[in-house]
Amino acid sequence: MAVRRKTAYDEWATRYRGGRRAPKETAATISGVPVQPLYTPEDLAGWSYDEKLGYPGEFPYTRGVYPSMYRGQLWTIRQFAGYGTAEETNRRYKFLLSQGQAGLSVAFDMPTLMGYDSDDPLSAGEVGHCGVAIDSLEDMETLFDGIRLDQITTSMTINSPAAILYAMYIAVGEKEGLAPAQLGGTLQNDILKEYIAQKEYIFPPEPSMRLVVDTIVFAAQNMPRWNAVSISGYHIREAGSTAVQELAFTLADGMAYVEASMKAGLPVDEFAPRLSFFSDSHSDFFEEIAKFRAARRLWARIMRDKYGARDPKSWMLRFHTQTAGVSLTRQQVENNISRTAYEAMAAVLGGTNSLHTNSMDEVLALPTERAAQIALRTQQVLAHETGVTNTIDPLAGSYFMEQLTDQMERGAQEYFDRIDEQGGVLRCIENGFFQREIADAAFEFERTLEANERIIVGVNAYKDGEGAPVPTLKIGPETERGQVARLTALKARRDNTSVDHRLEELKRAARGRDNLMPPLLDCVKAYVTEGEIMAALKEVFGVYREPILF
Amino acid sequence: MPAQASTERQAPDQAKRRRVLTAKVGLDGHDRGVKVVSRALRDAGVEVIYAGLRQTPEMVVEAAIQEDVDAIGVSLHSGAHMTLIPRILELLKERNATDIVVFGGGIIPQDDADALKKIGVVEIFGPGTSLQSIIDFVNKGFKAA
Asked: Which chain B residues contact residue A472 at CB under 8 A?
């Protein structure tokens, strides 16, 4: 830079720096982004309101995707829940709906997420433990028993076997007399972040992408209220990434889905309006708000300028947020209530469209009903008592916030360039780029904790006052025994000739290029189990092994 | 129990670097913790073999014996710890390899951790454990805090 004239910041610094209460020389966000003690109008020199913000509900949507935001409609309170059997979870859902929750969010157990039936040897000890066990359409019917599917929307956190659970949900709707078009909801179905972060992949990336595209195409053609994929930064962040990595890798994944769907022949405006996103809200308040605002602006530009979308709905980044599970501490568990509340507020100030607040005890086990209720009430306090819903994008124009939002955007752009240079998202998965970036960031974060450069209350400071142990939810072995018994009975009762026939049809379709949703619907309606379907698809697609690095 | 036994393996050469097999057992893929711990141990001079995701108890015990490790560190976040960790101990017994120490971490409620320690797991490191305390645990011969 040439000769720099004295700025308002310099003026302030010469007046006050070195004084009795001099500001700390360096400070950084939780992601390591340096922040100044003071921001002034000069930080926004050349900054244009119209270019950077615009109005809420208008391009580039920095201020929110809807013109009236929470003045028009509150975000959707959507608590993720599921444990034990379908019957138990059905009771929890009815409780949550009776408490004012507007939508359901299904947590599946590990065998369901990994495509194994409850009677598989690899499922031993896992059935119903970190979500609900679903083996067949029968379990899915029990899960939604007595709940009108056209009166709610349902989000399902499922990835490798997503198309199967999607087919089961459609089949349950049909039994209630509902057409697919009447069903609203979201499949997580984001396989790319599984290879990158959460590691619940099964098939190799290419057939996995084909399954995702098949669901996108099916939803675009049959289910106007359905989000076929929820492009997820949450798991990337929880695996240890920085905020800017979360932002960049998630949008890069989004672009990969757009490109794959366009390559399959779908015009961009036919599916892009139904792409949705899922974000983490971590503990660094302003950084998170900046991330949400930057995400909307980046996506709007990408969709309009890179992919030529013309429908404004294709430009809008709509997202669900979950507070950061990884920020919760085992020590002094009740402190997690306040952590979650701040994170929830950041999500709301960042314009989230729906929100899950973690329960304080999730660092120990699945939440108890009491802990889940406090988490729900935390959102209701936020919505009705704090006044945050009164004004749209209330931090807009803040020198700090706008500067941080711009910085997020630039950081993401740099990653997009690095990903492109390596040949795109799939190449970066294969060469371990994402995994290495995240592992390095996670290790660096732990280092700052070890060095006491960062304080986590109750963990490396203020350690007194552990409090009484909190009760945790227990899933006993009878859950697994009962589930296996029901599955065995189903397998004996159903028409097994039809099962074999449907599985052969599915494999034939998988070897070809047809959309797999119709044969999957045929399978689930014949009560073919999830594990049987996945085993058939593995025969055709193979399984993936990741490069091991740490 | 196995803390003393491990000195037997160490006896011929006290300066021998400690060898630890780390693994994710069970179906979940939350590998942040196990990777951070593996790297910290490696940086502290421990020989670390990270077996990767979705290792069954059989695979873990086989690898531990093949690699002649001093200890197995398992990480679980899926809730299957009360089934899979006891199975590892059982298999070590069957293979006459109880000199291999077992420790663990992840999302494991306190009373389950206590129960596991009763049956022979030397230590369970929950969320918020400092890396230094795990390094010390390994370097000081796998003795519970």
From this structure: 109
Nearest to A472 among B31, B56, B109 (CB): B109
Q: Range of B114's domain?
A: 18-139
Taking only residues 103 to 122 of chain B, the set having a beta carbon closer than 8 angstroms to any beta carbon of chain A reads 107, 109-110
Within a domain: B51: yes
Domain count, chain B: 1
Chain A nearest C-alpha distance from B3 (Å): 27
Is residue B145 assigned to a domain? no
B82 in any annotated domain = yes
Say yes or no for a CB contact (<8 Å) between B128 and A439: no
Task: Report CA Rg, chain B.
Answer: 14
CATH code, domain carrying B101: 3.40.50.280
The DSSP code for A327 is: G
What are the residue ranges of helices labelled H in A264-368?
268-271, 285-301, 312-315, 335-349
Contact between chains at A330 and B131 (C-beta distance less than 8 A) = no
Q: Which long-range contacts (CB under 8 A, 24 or more apart) does A70-75 make?
A: A70/A348, A70/A383, A70/A388, A70/A389, A70/A392, A71/A389, A71/A390, A71/A392, A74/A383, A74/A389, A75/A348, A75/A352, A75/A353, A75/A354, A75/A355, A75/A383
Distance from CA of A407 to the nearest CA of B (A): 27
Query: DSSP label at A305?
Result: I
| Residue B3 is assigned to a structural domain of this protein | no
Amino acid at site A373: Q
Among the partner residues B27, B36, B52, nearest to A446 by beta-carbon distance: B36
pTM of the model: 0.92
Q: Does A200 touch chain B (CB under 8 A)?
A: yes
Give the DSSP H or E segment for A103: strand A103-107
Distance of CA A187 to the CA centre of its chain: 10
Give the tens place of pLDDT for each residue, A157-209.
Answer: 999 999 999 999 999 999 999 999 999 999 999 999 999 999 999 999 999 99
Q: Model confidence over A112-150: pLDDT tens digits?
A: 999 999 999 999 999 998 899 999 999 999 999 999 999
Looking up tokens 């950081």, which residue turns up? A411
Flag if A330 and B127 touch (Cβ within 8 Å): yes
